[in-house]
Amino acid sequence: MAERINAPRGTYDVLPDQDGPRRVVEETARRILESAGYRRIETPIFEHTELFARGVGASTDIVQKEMYTFEDAGERSLTLRPEGTAAVMRAYHEHGMQKLPQPVKLWYFGPFFRRERPQAGRYRQFWQVGAEAIGSDDPAVDAELILLLHELAGELGVRDVRLRIGSLGTPESRAAYREKLIAHLRANEDKLSEEVRDRIDFNPLRAFDSDHPGTQEVMRSAPLLIDHLGKEDLEHFDEVRARLDAVGIDYEVDPTLVRGLDYYTRTLFELTSDALGAQSGVGGGGRYDGLAEQLGAPPTPGIGWAAGIERLLLAGQTPGTPAPPVDLYVAGTNVQAFALAAEGLRAGLNVQLELAGRSRKGMLKAADRAGARYVALVGDEETILKDMETGEQEEMTPQAVVAHVIKGRHQS
Ligand code: AMP
């Protein structure tokens, strides 16, 4: 016998029982985001590799080692999307959205791909819901997006939520700080992990993210970016915080917050759940005022976040949705039965047709298990409609069955 094929490592099947909670996440996100004027956008699953190389940043883990990149027959380098922001920014410019009233508020929901080491809550194909507001650098936009992520987590019952926010300033304020940080890292080079040491010049900020004890010790005495922000950056950050304070959102200011993507400027935030294990990140995002230029588009401010569907489900208390009630179980395997089921479906009823050739007794049992309101016992000569609630049975023409079920359904 040929060897059985399983799903690739780090991927998973969404089984029918898991569809309900996922749908609740999607519909809750839709309700919250659309009520604030965000509209759905879906970009392709694969893009030119260049979009992510430039848009996510060459120094990031994502671009360096996690992308699923391939050449198609036309020898173009394509990549399965590892994140959503770069493509949304691309689409914004590609479709002239700068001509619309600003900011343009968009949301998305779909699969993303990163070749990470699989573990609980971390997959190679995972799903994200994301929101982006492009075209304004007003701090109210930052606060609104943080509010929306916070509301989504709240509505889904995400437990033990923690919100951390920070500011990365602008590239100018960051450049001066970078030099100081590099000097600090150089002075303590012998205590750093090899990975951090190798990337001192390339991406020194990521040293804050390290879980290596020696590196962590060095970082405890490192200069902090927040102390090097310009006046305008600080004012912007204060304006964001004032709005969060005004609506009672709890947060911690974390001066060591860095995120794994290169494009962030100013506001940065991350929502975690202590109910999750090592992979505690539920969602996060930030402002990316420099991204458009990296993509060869005119300067365009923007901010957004993405949250992991698996993490929302793991940390939340998302109820399942029960299977829809069966209006009519068509107990019969002949052509008349098939025709009756088709007629019921066309009339908008929830119909289940007998597909396993059960005995009459078996069919009634299956109908009962499915919670069917009516069962049509379809013989070659006659059709009997049984009301499963009252036990009443009545012989009728197949034509009369659908009308009867519709009437009965509306009464109950
Ligand atoms: P990021 O795009 O890295 O900022 O991630 C945003 C959110 O997506 C995270 O907080 C996670 O909830 C989720 N996420 C990122 N990578 C993965 C992954 N490999 N598996 C599952 N969820 C992920």
SSE layout and pairings?
Blueprint: H1 16-35, E1 39-40, E2 46-48, H2 49-55, H3 61-66, E3 69-71, E4 77-80, H4 85-94, E5 104-113, E6 125-134, H5 139-155, E7 161-167, H6 171-187, H7 194-198, H8 213-220, H9 231-246, E8 252-253, E9 265-273, E10 281-287, H10 291-294, E11 302-308, H11 309-315, E12 328-331, H12 335-346, E13 351-353, H13 360-369, E14 374-378, E15 383-387, E16 393-396, H14 398-411
Parallel strand pairs: 1-5, 7-8, 12-13, 12-14
Antiparallel strand pairs: 2-4, 3-4, 5-6, 6-11, 7-9, 9-10, 10-11, 14-15, 15-16
Structure report:
By secondary structure, the chain is an alpha+beta fold. It has helices at about 15-35, 50-55, 60-65, 85-95, 140-155, 170-185, 195-200, 215-220, 230-245, 290-295, 310-315, 335-345, 360-370, 400-410, and strands at about 40, 45-50, 70, 75-80, 105-115, 125-135, 160-165, 250-255, 265-275, 280-285, 300-310, 330, 350-355, 375-380, 385, 395. It has an eight-stranded mixed sheet, with helices on both faces. The protein has a five-stranded mixed sheet with strand order 13-12-14-15-16, with helices on both faces. It has a three-stranded antiparallel sheet with strand order 2-4-3. Helix 1 runs antiparallel to helix 5 and helix 12 packs across helix 14 (about 400-410). The longest helix is centred in the N-terminal third of the chain and has 20 residues, at about 15-35. It is elongated and about 90 Å long. It binds adenosine monophosphate.
